[in-house]
Amino acid sequence: MARLSEYRYHLAALFTVSVWGATFVSTKALIAAGLTPAEIFLMRFALGYLCILPLAPRRLRAENRRDEAAFAAAGVCGGSLYFLLENVALEYAPASNVSLLVCTAPVWTALAAGRADRGERMTRRQAAGAALAAAGMALVVLNGRFVLHISPAGDLLALAAALSWMGYSLVIKRLGARYPASFIARKVFFYGMATILPVFAFRPFAATGELLARPVVWANLLFLGVVASGFCYALWNAVMRRLGAVRATNYIFFNPLVTMLTAALCIGERITAPALAGAAMILCGMWHAERR
Fold first, then answer.
1. High-pLDDT (> 90) share of the chain, %
2. Burial of 288 by CB count in 10 Å (0-12 exposed, 13-18 middle, 19+ buried)?
3. Global confidence as pTM
4. How far apart, in whole angstroms, are the C-alpha atoms of residue 249 and residue 233?
């Protein structure tokens, strides 16, 4: 029964990263409609906060100021800072560079978690599987285009985004043992929204009611806010508690695979033979890392 229960958490992790992989297409559609990345993030997290609020314990509070500071750090690392770094990096570097560097988050998380907690250290089998999945991820992201243009500013910002998600994973690992997943998600949404507000001092919020009333806009915002944020952040926090930071974060290798499939179905992007080979490597690598 315990093993069956753990499989459910693996399925939950796979579902979550599948949804997050599809958010690329939704975000791209919203930017094309006229919204800025900061506006999308604020509305996405606001919807997530409203969805999670009824489910989070009302009377529960952080046990001390140190935990409250950790919640704030999670809201920054897994929210405002992560999304800002990723989106600004796209302005300076090719998307392939950004995708590859952001998806190195599992590697940094494994290294940091292994040093902090001996129980989180990867075995040789897990390391080999993760390496195979990482190589497959690179093939999927490149999608047959084997030319990478070095862009120091953009590449460093993308690497910073990966390290930001690593920080989020480590903070959630510590908090997850003592707080419910829904309560953690509520805190992350609150601090994520609070720390994105200074951005609007430089570029004011300009989304109009007419723009938000368009079906393509509100439908994608509902997907990003209710499903990808409100539901998936709480689910991911529960997965992190059960599987650990390293095993859970390894599922991020699936992100480019899902994005590739979603982009092919929704906006007609071409899938190449190297990308299909990369997809097979991701699946084989994850199976090798997690098999008993």
1. 25
2. middle
3. 0.78
4. 13
